[in-house]
Design goal:
The complex is a heterodimer of chains A (292) and B (235).
Chain A: H1 2-32, H2 39-55, H3 60-86, H4 91-113, E1 118-119, E2 128-131, E3 134-139, H5 140-162, H6 164-174, H7 176-181, H8 186-209, E4 213-214, H9 220-233, H10 238-259, H11 264-278
Antiparallel strand pairs in A: 1-4, 2-3
Chain B: E1 2-11, E2 14-24, E3 29-33, H1 40-47, E4 55-60, E5 63-64, H2 73-76, E6 78-81, H3 93-102, H4 114-120, H5 122-126, H6 137-150, E7 155-159, H7 167-184, E8 187-191, H8 195-201, E9 204-209, E10 212-218, H9 219-224, H10 226-233
Parallel strand pairs in B: 3-8, 3-9, 6-7, 7-8
Antiparallel strand pairs in B: 1-2, 1-4, 4-5, 9-10
Classes of the chains: A mainly alpha (292), B alpha/beta (235).
C-alpha cells in the first residue's frame, strides 16, 4: 500500500514534467512541423542561467523567472535565425538542424558552465511530507511541480481559446496561407509559438533540476520521454500531450518501483514502439482524420 | 475602383497571365470567366500577393496592390476567398468569423459584425459554436464569405464559390451576393467555371483565354453573344 502510494505520487510529479515537455514539443510540431530535439539542451541552457543567478546570491525566484524569459528569447531566436531559413525545404532539414543545435548547445554549455555535476537548489522541501506519522513520497517541490505545470497549462488554454493573439496563432498553425489572406502575420506567430514552447520547455528543465543535479546532458533523457509522451498522446494534440505525459510518468514510475529503475528507458521505448504499431496517430489524437 | 494594367505572371516558363488590363468599378460584380488553365485563379492570387507578377500594375484606389504584402491586403480593403473555400476546419464557426474581423482596417466605419453576418447567413448563427469541420459545403462557402465581409473589404475576390455546391445553394448564395453589392457598394471579382450563373448576377464579364484577356463586356451582352459563348464559355 505504502509503495503503491509512493509510486503513484512519484509518477504524477514526473508525469507533470513530461507533460510540460511533451506540450512544448507538440506546440512546435503543430505550428511548424518540426520535432525540436534541441528543446532539451535549450532547457538545460536556461536552467544554467537560473543557476548562475542563484549562485550569485540572488533569490531562487529571480533565477526562475530569468530562466523562463531566457527561454522565451532563445525560442524566438532559434526559430527566426535557424529554422526559418530551412522552412519548406524538405521536412528532414529542420529536424537535422535541431539535432545539430542539440550538439552545439551541449558544447556551449560545457565550455561556459563546465561539464561537472552541480547541484540546483529547490525553494521548497525535497523531503517527503509527513502525514499522520508516515512519510509520503510527495515533496513540497513535487507539489510545486504539479501546480506550476497546471498553472502554465491553464494560461496556455486561456491564451489560445480567448485571446486574439491565440486565435491568430492557431490559424497560422492550421492554415498558414488562409491566415495570411486574413491579415495574420504568420511569421511572427510562428516565432511567438516557438518562444512560448521554449518557455514551457524551460519550465520543465527547472522542475527536473530542482533539488537535483545539473550537467550539460541532464535533460537528454527527458527529450526522449517527452517525445514518447507526445507520440503517446498524438503529436497533433496538446491535450493528448498532457495526458500522454502523465500516463508515461505513471507507467515509468511503476516500472521503476516494481521492476527496477534500470528498465525505465527500455520501457519508454517499448511504449513508443507499441503506440506506433497499434495506434500511430496517438491515443488522444483529435485530428486523425485530417485531410492534409 | 480596381485598375489592372498589363498584368503578367508566370510559373517557371509557363506564362499564366499575359498582359491583362481591366477595371472593376465599385458597386459592381465583375465575372472572370474562361476555361480551366485560362489564368483566372492566377489573376486573383496575383492581386492578393500570393503570386508575384512579372510585369504590370494593379491599384485599388490609391493603393499599389503589387507592393502590398499578403498580410496587409485586408487592411487595404481587399479580401480574397481562395479556391477550395479556405475554412479553417479546426476552429469553430465563431472563431473563423472573429479571425475575419481581426483583419479589418483599423479606424473606419464597420458595416459588418458577427451578428450582422449571422443575420445574413442564419445557419452560421445556429452553428456558431460548432467546429467548422462539421459544416456542409454550402455552409462553408457562407462562412468564408461572411468571414471575408467581416474584414470590411472594398473589393471581394471570390474563387469558384459554386464549386461542388447544389444549384439551389449556388442560387441562394449568388442572390445574397447581388443584394450585398447593391446595398453596400462593395465590388466583387467573381471567378467562375459556371459562366451562366455568374453572368446572371454580374454587371460586367471578362473572359480569359490562355492568360490573355479576350473579351470585356457588359454581362447581358456577353450572354447574348452566341459566338463568344460557344468559343469560350461552353454553353
Amino acid at each position: 500500500m505504502q509503495q503503491l502510494l509512493t509510486t503513484t505520487l512519484t509518477g504524477l510529479v514526473l508525469g507533470a514534467v513530461y507533460a510540460a515537455f511533451a506540450l512544448a514539443l507538440v506546440m512546435i510540431w503543430r505550428s511548424t512541423r518540426v520535432v525540436n530535439f534541441a528543446q532539451a539542451p535549450m532547457a538545460m541552457l536556461t536552467t544554467y542561467i537560473a543557476l548562475v543567478i542563484i549562485e550569485a546570491g540572488h533569490s531562487f525566484w529571480l533565477g526562475f523567472v530569468a530562466a523562463l524569459l531566457a527561454g522565451l528569447v532563445l525560442g524566438a531566436v532559434v526559430e527566426r535565425v535557424l529554422v526559418r531559413p530551412v522552412e519548406g525545404k524538405g521536412d528532414l532539414n529542420a529536424v537535422i538542424l535541431t539535432l545539430g543545435l542539440f550538439i552545439v548547445l551541449h558544447s556551449v554549455a560545457a565550455l561556459v558552465f563546465g561539464s561537472r555535476y552541480r547541484s540546483f537548489p529547490a525553494p521548497f522541501g525535497v523531503r517527503g511530507i509527513e502525514v499522520g506519522g508516515t512519510t509520503v513520497a510527495l515533496t513540497g517541490f513535487g507539489i510545486f511541480t504539479i501546480l506550476a505545470v497546471v498553472v502554465v497549462m491553464g494560461l496556455l488554454v486561456l491564451l489560445f481559446r480567448f485571446t486574439d493573439v491565440g486565435l491568430r496563432m492557431r490559424a497560422s498553425a492550421h492554415s498558414p496561407e488562409v491566415a495570411r489572406l486574413l491579415g495574420v502575420r504568420v511569421g511572427r506567430m510562428l516565432t511567438l509559438g516557438w518562444a512560448l514552447a521554449a518557455v514551457v520547455g524551460s519550465l520543465a528543465g527547472l522542475l527536473i533540476a530542482g533539488g537535483g543535479l545539473v550537467h550539460p546532458g541532464y535533460m537528454d533523457a527527458v527529450v526522449v520521454y517527452g517525445f514518447v509522451a507526445a507520440v503517446l498522446g498524438g503529436l497533433d494534440s496538446p491535450g493528448g500531450a498532457v495526458a500522454g505525459g502523465v500516463l508515461l510518468g505513471l507507467c515509468l514510475s511503476f516500472v521503476s518501483g516494481y521492476l527496477g529503475s534500470e528498465l525505465v528507458a527500455m520501457a519508454a521505448l517499448l511504449i513508443l514502439v507499441a503506440v506506433l504499431l497499434v495506434k500511430p496517430s496517438g491515443l488522444f489524437a483529435t485530428t486523425a482524420h485530417r485531410r492534409v | 475602383m480596381l485598375e489592372v494594367r498589363d498584368l503578367s505572371a508566370s510559373y517557371g516558363a509557363v506564362k499564366a497571365l499575359d498582359g491583362v488590363s481591366f477595371d472593376a468599378a465599385d458597386g459592381q460584380i465583375t465575372a472572370v470567366l474562361g476555361a480551366n488553365g485560362a489564368g483566372k485563379t492566377t489573376l486573383l492570387r496575383t492581386l492578393s500577393g500570393l503570386v508575384r507578377p512579372t510585369a504590370g500594375s494593379a491599384r485599388l484606389g490609391s493603393t499599389d496592390l503589387l507592393r502590398t504584402p499578403v498580410e496587409e491586403m485586408t487592411r487595404t480593403g481587399l479580401a480574397h476567398v481562395p479556391e477550395g473555400r479556405g475554412v479553417i476546419t479546426e476552429l469553430t464557426v465563431e472563431e473563423n468569423l472573429r479571425l475575419g474581423a481581426l483583419g479589418a482596417p483599423s479606424g473606419g466605419e464597420r458595416r459588418f459584425d458577427v451578428d450582422r453576418v449571422t443575420e445574413l447567413f442564419p445557419v452560421l448563427g445556429q452553428r456558431r459554436h460548432q467546429v467548422a469541420d462539421t459544416l456542409s459545403g454550402g455552409e462553408r462557402q457562407m462562412l468564408v464569405i461572411g468571414r471575408a465581409l467581416l474584414a470590411e473589404p472594398r473589393i471581394l475576390l471570390l474563387d469558384e464559390p459554386s464549386l461542388g455546391l447544389a444549384p439551389r445553394v449556388v442560387a441562394q448564395i449568388f442572390a445574397l451576393l447581388r443584394d450585398l453589392v447593391s446595398s453596400t457598394g462593395l465590388s466583387v471579382l467573381l471567378v467562375e467555371q459556371n459562366a451562366r450563373s455568374a453572368l446572371g448576377i454580374a454587371d460586367v464579364g471578362i473572359v480569359l483565354n490562355l492568360g490573355r484577356l479576350v473579351v470585356q463586356q457588359a454581362a447581358d451582352t456577353l450572354v447574348d453573344d452566341d459566338q463568344l459563348r460557344h468559343a469560350y464559355l461552353g454553353f
